[in-house]
Specification:
single chain, alpha+beta, 4-stranded antiparallel sheet, 4 helices, 16% helix
Length: 273
């Protein structure tokens, strides 16, 4: 989240907005690697949706930083201090973009209280590209989107929801993201419901990463697109199963012979390191 402060813009030299390093397009959100730089621009007129609560999906569809992946969330978005100071752009760039690009595109005047917001937040691997930035109008009692962002970050880091699903949900509609992911009632991710006779099997083998004690837990089940969690005495981690009901879950610092419990939806199975 980029907080907007009052600054004297007229005296500032116009900063250079560098072109983002766009990666090969993949299904879903555009990928742009642009740490500490506001990149891209906005073309044409943009219109708020849902009484100004949501941005124009044509102008601000959301985009992500490809450096953040499901495999490295522990060393990126789940690590304290990840977003600052290595990712967030300086205020000189965000204020310039807000005044001279975002405000005109969305038909706003400069005195409107607002903040330049990352639609997909940096805490979920969002980029600093124009496709991910919009002028979110100020709220008298604080910004409720902040709470949603924090909830989704916790859900991803605890293994309850996959990174890609959280990114897609908040880009589509931050107000319904928690409900779409199944986090508002049961606290678990949504997906294909578990069959009545849910089952799973698991096995563990040393991870091929050069670190002693790290294990890959291979999970098979009859529950595709369901949350799978592996827990031991020293680590707990989760991952979403694929279309075949399988997943590989990475655990750190396991001792040989340590018991590991795996849950997949309504099924529980066991293995040892």
């Amino acid at each position: 989240m980029i907080k907007s402060l009052t600054v004297v813009i007229a005296a500032l030299a116009v900063p250079v907005i560098t072109a983002g390093a766009a990666f090969a397009s993949t299904p879903g959100l555009k990928q742009v690697r642009d740490p500490r730089h506001v990149t891209g621009t906005i073309h044409g007129r943009c219109y708020f949706r849902d009484k100004t609560e949501l941005p124009d999906p044509r102008c601000t569809p959301g985009s992500i930083d490809p450096i953040v992946t499901q495999a490295n969330i522990r060393s990126t978005i789940c690590k304290a201090g990840w977003t600052d100071p290595h990712l967030r752009p300086p205020e000189s760039q965000t204020e310039w973009f807000k005044r001279y690009r975002a405000f005109p595109a969305y038909g706003l005047t400069w005195y409107r209280e607002s903040e330049l917001d990352h639609l997909v937040p940096l805490e979920l691997g969002g980029s600093n590209d124009a496709t991910n930035l919009w002028p979110e109008l100020g709220k008298p009692s604080g910004n409720p989107k902040d709470k949603v962002e924090n909830a989704l970050n916790r859900a991803v880091c605890s293994g309850r929801v996959s990174l890609a699903r959280a990114q897609a949900a908040i880009a589509y509609d931050w107000m319904t993201a928690e409900k779409r992911l199944g986090l508002t009632s049961t606290g678990t991710s949504t997906g294909t419901p578990a069959p009545a006779s849910a089952w799973c099997t698991a096995s563990a083998s040393p991870a091929n990463d050069g670190w002693a004690g790290d294990y890959d837990v291979s999970v098979s089940s009859n529950q595709p697109y369901s949350n799978a969690t592996a827990s031991s005495a020293t680590d707990t981690y989760g991952y979403e199963t694929n279309s075949s009901g399988s997943a590989v879950i990475y655990l750190w610092y396991q001792s040989p012979g340590e018991n590991i419990t795996v849950t997949v939806g309504g099924a529980t199975c066991y293995t040892t390191a």
